[in-house]
């Protein structure tokens, strides 16, 4: 979970790992309302429950955006998480089928905004 470093070429082009010059950071909590065991991520994680957490109860996106997936290995329903607090699963999902979130990856923004 070490932070990824961009190359000088990416930084010069304004395309470092945080989109247009930013960085990625998310804090994932095992329980709702930012309680219990926590894990800080700055890079993708294909399986949050393998050794990090038993489940995901809440999320704080400090910088991003991030793409969250209901299943391991970036599969299943996807959710875009922008900067902010997600105190329980229904804050990031409207799904009545699943309350799980098992993998996360930074959402890389390519190109320039005008």
UniProtKB/TrEMBL annotation:
Keywords: Eye lens protein, Repeat
GO molecular-function term, one example from the UniProt record: structural constituent of eye lens
Cross-referenced Gene3D superfamilies: Crystallins
UniProt function note: Crystallins are the dominant structural components of the vertebrate eye lens.
Assembly and binders: Homo/heterodimer, or complexes of higher-order. The structure of beta-crystallin oligomers seems to be stabilized through interactions between the N-terminal arms.
Family to which this protein belongs: Belongs to the beta/gamma-crystallin family.
Name used for this protein in its record: Beta-crystallin B3
GN (gene name): CRYBB3
């Amino acid at each position: 979970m070490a932070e990824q470093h961009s190359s000088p070429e990416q930084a010069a082009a304004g395309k470092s790992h945080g989109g247009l010059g930013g960085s990625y950071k998310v804090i994932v909590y095992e329980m709702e309302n930012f309680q219990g065991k926590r894990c800080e991520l700055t890079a993708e994680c294909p399986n949050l429950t393998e050794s990090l957490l038993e489940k995901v109860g809440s999320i704080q996106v400090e910088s991003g955006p991030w793409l969250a997936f209901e299943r391991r290995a970036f599969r299943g329903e996807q959710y875009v998480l922008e900067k902010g607090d997600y105190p329980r699963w229904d804050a990031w999902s409207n799904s009545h089928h699943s309350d799980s979130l098992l993998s996360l990856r930074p959402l890389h923004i390519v190109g320039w905004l005008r």
